[in-house]
Amino acid sequence: MTTAYDAVVLAGGAARRLGGSDKPGVRIGGRTLLDRVLAACPDAARTVVVAAPRPTARPVRWTREDPPGGGPLAALGAGVRETGADVLLVLSADLPFLDGATVRRLLDALDAAPGAEAALLTDAEGRDQPLVAAYRRTPLLRELALIADRRGTLAGGPLRLLSGGLSLTRVAAAPLASFDCDTWEDIATARARIREHGTVLDEWITAVKDELGIELDVDTGVLLDLARDAAHGVARPAAPLTTFLVGYAAARAGEGGPEAVAEAARKAAALAQRWAAEEDGEQPSEQPSERATE
Predict the structure, then answer these.
(1) Beta strands per DSSP E along 137-208
(2) Which end of the chain is more exposed for a tag (fewer CB within 10 A), N or C?
(3) Residue 165 buriedness (CB in 10 A; 0-12 / 13-18 / 19+)
(4) Strand 47-50 relative to strand 27-28: parallel, antiparallel, unpaired?
(5) Which value, in Å, is the radius of gyration of the alpha carbons in the chain?
């Protein structure tokens, strides 16, 4: 993706259907809803969050609508004033399953349609999602100014006033990408979904990397195979200890990137297999160990 963009995340609102709870701070899979949305747009040149400041997993710029609680149009107007890029990604802070692939699809769709002024995600029912969208900054400012002029204020205005004045292209949402959390039932559903068999491991690894402040993409299959070999060939406690030592060795090797992790895992896996072979009564190899030949 080559499109340069700023991101505006709307994280205010009264959350009345949550009894006034701090919705952006609600945790899904150990991460706040706000941090989950921020993780979907890490390469934004500038990220503006419209809300009262709070701790976040990465640095952002904070601003507030005037008056606070003035609604999404007023919040969007405040956020846009803090941006500078020609393309703006606009997101609400209650999208637990938003990911970088969806963000790229929106930006690519806008880039591929020079006549379009915005690319909006549509949900499974085909409804436009103006708070999961990429906008061209100049037309967005134009429409916000027209709405403010007609109404005298952006506060309290419905979002449909915005998209109705723009030339749009639309992007169909991938499963769950447009799922938002308005109620405690929605939050319970999101928490259950991330623990499903096909997703729980990826969710956990992402949460751990976020918590530790690391951005490392590794082949989890290699590490799982290593853990299995260590557990079966040596002893069950060897699995977590071995994977820890692999990470430590990769870090000491230099950059500690995916290649270093893969190489350390390969060596440890070979050792686990040699260990298991001895237990099975196989004759030891006459070949010198890799370490001895380095």
Answers:
(1) 168-172
(2) C
(3) middle
(4) unpaired
(5) 24
Give the tokens for residue 20.
């006034």
* Bridge partners for 2 per DSSP: none
Across the chain, the runs of DSSP E, i.e. the strands, are 6-10, 27-28, 31-32, 47-50, 61-63, 87-92, 118-122, 128-136, 168-172
Which pTM does this prediction carry?
0.79
User: Which uninterrupted H or E stretch holds 258?
Assistant: helix 258-279
By C-alpha distance, which of 273, 268, 272 is closest to 291?
268
Task: Write out pLDDT tens, residues 114-127.
Answer: 999 999 999 888 89
Residue 79 dihedral angles phi and psi, to the nearest 5°: -70, -40
Structure tokens at 217: 């993409």
DSSP code for 129: E
Helix (H) or strand (E) holding 122: strand 118-122
Structure tokens at 252: 């000491």
Question: What is the residue whose two structure tokens read 């969710």?
Answer: 203
